Amino acid sequence: MSVGPKTVLELDDIQAGALHERPSPYVGRYLLLQLHDAGEGRELVRRLHTLLAAQNDGPEAETPAWMTVAFTCAGLAALGVPQSILDTFPDQFREGMARRAQDLGDVGPSGPEHWEWPLGTDAVHVAVSVLAPDERHLELVAERARQRHADLSSVEVVWRQDCYQLPSGRTSFGFKDGIGNPDVEGSGLPVRNRRERPIKAGEFILGYPDETGSLAPMPAPEVLGRNGTFLVFRKLRTDVAAYRRYLKEVARSREEERLLAAKMVGRWPSGAPLTLAPDSDDPDLGADPARNNSFGYREDLRGFKCPAGAHARRANPRDALEDENSVDVRLHRLIRRGTSYGPMLAEGVLEDDGVDRGIIFVFAGAHLKRQFEFVKTQWINDGVFIGASDESDPLLGGTHTPTDFTIPHVPVRRRLRHLPSFVTTRGGEYCFAPGLRALKWLGELDT
User: Fold this and answer.
1) From CA 78, how far away is CA 215, in angstroms rounded?
2) In which band, very low, low, confident or very high, does the pLDDT at 7 lie, cut at 50, 70 and 90?
3) CA atoms within 13 A on the CB side of 180
4) In the chain, pLDDT over 90 holds for what percent of residues?
5) Is the bond preceding residue 221 a cis peptide, omega within 30 degrees?
């Protein structure tokens, strides 16, 4: 584990959306573009670079909204980036998520053959996201972005997804989201988890030392790779009715439904972690950013407070694996940006209403394989690391569908049987969000 000198980040070159938290409340929009002409594509990049540069100069004073621009491997090729340069990107990025779906557990109804078009196809070239605290500011920035391509006839919007924070402030499953992101050294943002040192910036931003003390493999030339980050984009449909029905079937009371749901998630609906509030929800704790992420699992290794197989604990085992010589949790951290889409399912409804609802997940990191792919395959899909090889994440499912879920208890543990899949993958992409100098370089590329 590296402890070297603190890193100073070139924040003026890093796209602001890579490190900044989304606002709360929020509204958002995701656009996917296809480029039919390399010249006009580079003109689009030049215009977007100007917009992002102005945003980095101080967006909060004028427009409290964040825009992020990223490219798929097919998108970089469509801009005219030579194959010799594309070959310097990691295999996972060049292959794309759809081609790696089998390994990721995106099979059956979650398989690429069922994904929304054009997700997972070579028709996706540019991804643009805008997040703002309200509709007015969202539309202001979205209109500026639209003006950048309105007169470029070869730039086509092929997909759009609008998102917004639900009135409850929680996900469609009823739990507060956006908690548990790592503190990043050099980001300038407040430290929330006082129990662990901030994670080295090189775990998330290319060109800086990571937790091993080395630099992550970076695309060449340096101007293209430095200050960039890889983004994992996934649209996940949630079957809230099935989730409610299952809890109702296995619980003896409404109070037990709430407890079992919290055990599956690892937190109460307010965001209060089970490790700090094992017996009942604590809304004050859940709402306090100085406390709701400042905890570990080392004092609860057997999982009597928070089961080892709970969703939040699987995604980040924290200090529970400190004695595992083969696993350094700090090498597998992710920045998560989750947003909800679709309306809430009405309270108490147990049958699906046919409306599409769920979560757009965006993960940022410098190592696609050892971060997102490791967490998804080894911790979410599998149960070997918790000693339950036949169990997957109780919310997201994975390798074992249906799966079981063990809740340690004295004198007898409880095992929930045959949990169905509550989440279906509707599509995803691996993208690269370059730094601002890299965007300028791409816009001026001479092919």
Assistant:
1) 28
2) confident
3) 24
4) 81
5) yes
Report yes or no on whether pTM surpasses 0.85. yes
| Long-range own/partner contacts, residues 54-57 (CB < 8 A, 24 or more apart) | 55/16, 56/11, 56/12, 56/15, 56/16, 56/436
**Bond before 182 cis per omega within 30 degrees:** no
Q: Which residue has the tokens 């060449």?
A: 220
| 148 — pLDDT class (breaks 50, 70, 90) | confident
**Angle between helix 240-250 and 254-265 (nearest 10):** 120
Output the pLDDT for position 177: 86
Q: Residue 25: is the preceding peptide bond cis (ω within 30°)?
A: yes
pLDDT of 12-62, one tens digit each?
Answer: 999 988 888 888 899 999 999 999 999 999 999 999 999 999 887 754 445
pLDDT tens, residue by residue, 53-81: 988 775 444 557 889 999 999 999 999 99
233/28 Cα distance (integer angstroms): 14
pLDDT at 58: 58
CA atoms within 13 A on the CB side of 10: 14
Dihedral sign of CA atoms 428, 436, 136, 134 in order: positive
DSSP 8-state secondary structure symbol assigned to residue 134: S
Helix ranges, 108-159 (H): 135-149
Judged by phi (left if over 0) then psi (alpha if -120 to 50, else beta), residue 275 lies in: alpha
**Distance of alpha carbon 237 from alpha carbon 172, whole angstroms:** 10
Among residues 348, 155, 317, the alpha carbon closest in space to that of 254 is found at 348
Dump the DSSP string for 159-222.
EEEEEE--TTSS-TTS---S--PPPBTTS-SPP--TTSPPBPGGGTSTTSB-TTSSBPP--SSH
Chain CA centroid to CA 43, Å: 29
Residue whose structure tokens are 């101080």: 58
CA-based nearest residue to 59, from 114, 4, 20, 99? 20
Contact by Cβ (8 Å): 144, 48: no
